[in-house]
Amino acid sequence: MNTLAAMRSAWRALRANPLRSLLTMLGIIIGVAAVITMIAIGQGATERVQEHMKVLGANVMLVLPGSSNSGGVRQGAQSSQALTEVDAQAIALEVPEVQVAAPSSRATVQAVYGGTNWSTPVFGATNDYLEARDWPLASGRLFEVAEAQGAAKVVILGQTVARELFGDQDPVDQVIRLRNVPVTVIGVLALKGQNSWGSDQDDIAIVPLNTFRNRIQGDAAGRVKRVASISVKVRDGNDMKVAEDNIRELLLQRMRVQPGADEPFRVRNLTEMLQAQEASSRTMTLLLSAVAGVSLLVGGIGIMNIMLVSVTERTREIGLRMAVGARGRDILTQFLIEAVTLSLIGGAIGVLLGAIATWAVGQFAGWQVSMTIDSIVLAAGFSALVGVFFGFYPAKRASELLPIQALRHE
């Protein structure tokens, strides 16, 4: 019996007992559908993390103030006033792994243009801040040196602020008011999107650090130039952990922190955090896929069971075929093809259900999913292997029957 004839025979056997065949394939169907759905969810989560890494910028760290003590009461995170603009300059100059170190401060103010207003975070920063964040301009220009040093009344807007204040109008060279300070828009940032925590990064306005300090925040001139954070970009090819350790050691020396004392700052390796999140997503995907794989094994056991029943029911048929010349390997091939056919049909139905489940998760749960051809091939190939593995024993048992005993079987 050739392969095509064996497949036709298998199909006839399946059609003879459709309900039993469906129940036999149920484990394979559920297993394949679960594997495809889990891989799609895991792949979607990984892609989302990679998008966040791209949006955030590569090799980025953030130096933030730590907590402080006041009258014996321990304040919350970032309550310390430890970081200064000079610390950022020292990091850029003395840590060889650092490409740029950009100090910045932040306040939420009301931006007004004509009769339109919008509450937005305003950052006091330098051009290095945009380099650290890998954030290009969509239009306009960066701050000039004289503007940065002279606290010029200029501002660069994010896409959300530009849209809320100006609509379709070009905001460049227009004048808006930030906390009643008139500033001229000199540029608009490229679209950045949401960050890892769901915040709109395009809802931002950036003024020179001196402008923020002297005009927006209203600090007195000559005061220690404290900043709220320092964004650090590490040079490509350098170890982030080494850079982090060097930054921490430098700041501890500058702030004269005694050994064992609390650090008045925190260094957050954002790239490392996102990579850990990506690794966690992959681990969870593997774990869920392994659980789904158990369903495939259970389905395989069901196939073995039903094939053993089929061999018993068709013993006389096997004896007749052997009597007219069929060899043992022909019988083995026939039953093996029947087992694989069961697995492949179950796998095909599982792929269809997996695609529907993946679409439903993406549509109704709002999760990012990504179903690839690799996951389909993997699930279908594994289901075929299950058919071969669990169908081999019944097929071998059928092929080893003696014709005379098989013909006497009732």
What would you say this structure looks like, in words?
- By secondary structure, this protein is of the alpha+beta class.
- 56% of the residues lie in helices and 18% in strands.
- The protein has helices at residues 3-16, 18-56, 85-94, 127-132, 145-149, 159-166, 209-216, 240-254, 270-313, 315-323, 328-365, 373-399, 403-408; strands at residues 60-65, 69-70, 73-74, 98-113, 116-125, 137-140, 154-157, 175-178, 181-189, 205-208, 229-234, 265-269.
- A 6-stranded mixed beta barrel has the order 4-5-10-7-9-8. It has a two-stranded antiparallel sheet with strand order 2-3.
- Strand 4 and strand 5 (116-125) form a beta hairpin.
Please give the structural blueprint.
Elements: H1 3-16, H2 18-56, E1 60-65, E2 69-70, E3 73-74, H3 85-94, E4 98-113, E5 116-125, H4 127-132, E6 137-140, H5 145-149, E7 154-157, H6 159-166, E8 175-178, E9 181-189, E10 205-208, H7 209-216, E11 229-234, H8 240-254, E12 265-269, H9 270-313, H10 315-323, H11 328-365, H12 373-399, H13 403-408
Parallel strand pairs: 5-10, 7-9
Antiparallel strand pairs: 1-11, 1-12, 2-3, 4-5, 4-8, 4-11, 6-9, 7-10, 8-9
Describe the main β-sheet briefly.
Answer: 6 strands, mixed, barrel
Instruction: Tell me roughly what share of residues is in helical segments.
Output: 55-70%
Question: Can you tell me the residue ranges where pLDDT is under 50 for at least 5 consecutive residues?
Answer: none
Strands in their spatial order, largest beta sheet: 4-5-10-7-9-8
Which of globular, elongated, flat, extended, rod-shaped describes the shape?
elongated
- Class by SSE composition: alpha+beta
Find the count of extended strands (DSSP E, 2+ residues): 12
Mean pLDDT: 82
Strand content: 15-25%
Number of helices: 13
The termini sit apart by: 25 Å
Integer-rounded radius of gyration: 34 Å
